Structures are given as structure tokens and as C-alpha cells.
From TrEMBL:
Keywords: DNA-binding, Transcription, Transcription regulation. The keyword DNA-binding applies. This is Transcriptional regulator, GntR family with UTRA sensor domain. Residues 13-81 form the HTH gntR-type domain. The keyword Cell division does not apply. It comes from the Bacteria. One of its GO terms (biological process) is negative regulation of DNA-templated transcription. One of its GO terms (molecular function) is DNA binding. SMART domains: HTH_GNTR, UTRA. CDD domains: WHTH_GntR (cd07377). It comes from Thermoanaerobacter wiegelii Rt8.B1.
Length: 244
């Protein structure tokens, strides 16, 4: 049975922590299911007879631990478990989601030609100012936005400038249009927070934790083919690696 009353005795845990544990247990036992909107801060405040600051601290910790997510205009929602990706293999987002039993999709895809910045030129082994393709996409799992991909590709690939062709797997498109197969990649991972643009695309609050990865991919001839900066929802995605 889930505890619902707070312990005010001497030496008891802080009230916010007790409330956090009660809400957490309701999520873990399925009383609050993924996608459910939990009671509002005001309702929880009345239920537990505590201040709104206490309720907010409990919810903030559950948001930080990946149990809850604040949705603008909707409330605080129970989120599914994080999607995990193994670090030691190269897979497209499409293949990774299918492997996890999730439906991959793309809500935004925009292809254009730009001049390479110094950073992009260095990653693709080209000259600064050379023409490159820039592909910006928002990819989803079960229709929920999970990641923003900001990808740069060398101009020799001769890719079509039709946004509609980039709603599926990029790696599959590269193979079909140019006979190129990605066989190796170098990837860096870091923690950051969502700026206004990323927050809007991923339907989250500005300043919310984001997992950023930077990938440079190569073909079988060790030529640089792709430079991508990825911004994953920190509450919905994580990497794992097996160490031996």
C-alpha cells in the first residue's frame, strides 16, 4: 500500500522528500501511467497541507530524475522510461527506434545549401566557405519529439533539395542516392541545456537538461561524410556502454 500521509515526527525526512517518494511510488506502481497528468501544484498543496514551494521542490526533483516532464499549457506529465542506445554500434535513428519497438517519424525536415563554417570545414576536411548541405530535422518516437539533428554533408554528394525526401533514414538515403555506407563514427557526448529554439522544437522549457552529441561519420574509405550536432531530451534518452 502506498503511503499517503507525511511524517512530522522529530528526525523525519524533509517534507518535500517524503512527497517526492510518494509520487515516485505512484509512478513506479502504475497508479500514474506514462502520459498521465498528475494533480496540479495547488491540488497537491491542498492534499498534503504544505506550501507550494515544498510541492515545487518535490516535483523539480522528479523532473530532474526523469519521472515527470512539464508541458507548457498541459501540466506535469508522467514520462515513459528513457530510450537507451548502445554506444558501440552505428545505427540510424530509424533503426534504433524500430529495435526498441517504437515508431520512428520526423516532424520537421529542412535541406539547404550553405557555406561551411570553420568548425564544419574542419570536421568534413574541406575548406572554410565551401558549399555544404545542411539538413535540420526533428525526429520523434511514437510521435513524441525526441531529438533535433543539425547535419552537414559535403557538396560532392549531389543530394536532392527536396525536404520531403528527408523524413526517413538519412543513412538509407545516402546509400540509395550515392552508394555510400557509413562504417565508422567518432562521437562526443556532453550535457547542456535547451535554448529557446531547441526548447520550442522539443516541446520543453528553456533551460531544461539536454544531452548533446557531436558525431563525425566516415565511409569505408575513411572519408568524412557527415557532421551532426544532436540535441536529445535529457529526460527521454540516454546512452550505455558495456565495459570489459
Amino acid at each position: 500500500m502506498i503511503k499517503s500521509k507525511l511524517d512530522y515526527s522529530k528526525g523525519a525526512q524533509p517534507l518535500y522528500f517524503q512527497i517526492k517518494q510518494i509520487l515516485k511510488e505512484k509512478i513506479e506502481t502504475g497508479e500514474y501511467k506514462p502520459g498521465d497528468i498528475i494533480p496540479s501544484e495547488r491540488e497537491l498543496q491542498e492534499q498534503f497541507k504544505v506550501s507550494r514551494i515544498t510541492i515545487r521542490q518535490a516535483i523539480n526533483e522528479l523532473v530532474g530524475e526523469g519521472y515527470l516532464s512539464r508541458k507548457r499549457g498541459k501540466g506535469t506529465i508522467v514520462i515513459p522510461h528513457r530510450i537507451e542506445e548502445m554506444l558501440s554500434r552505428i545505427r540510424s535513428f530509424t533503426d534504433e527506434m524500430i529495435l526498441r519497438g517504437l515508431k520512428p517519424s520526423t516532424s520537421i525536415a529542412q535541406i539547404s545549401i550553405q557555406e561551411a563554417s570553420k568548425k564544419v570545414a574542419l570536421a568534413l576536411n574541406i575548406k572554410e566557405g565551401d558549399k555544404v548541405y545542411r539538413l535540420k530535422r526533428v525526429r520523434c518516437a511514437n510521435d513524441e519529439p525526441i531529438v533535433v539533428f543539425d547535419t552537414y554533408l559535403p557538396n560532392f554528394l549531389e543530394l536532392p533539395l527536396d525536404d520531403n525526401l528527408y523524413y526517413g533514414s538519412l543513412y538509407k538515403l545516402l546509400e540509395e542516392t550515392n552508394g555510400i555506407k557509413i562504417t565508422e563514427a567518432i562521437e562526443y557526448i556532453e550535457a547542456t541545456v535547451a535554448d529557446k529554439e531547441i526548447a520550442n522544437l522539443l516541446e520543453m522549457e528553456v533551460g531544461y537538461p539536454v544531452l548533446k552529441t557531436v558525431r563525425t561519420s566516415f565511409n569505408e574509405r575513411k572519408n568524412q561524410i557527415e557532421y551532426t550536432e544532436c540535441f536529445y531530451r535529457g529526460d527521454r534518452y540516454r546512452y550505455f556502454v558495456t565495459l570489459k
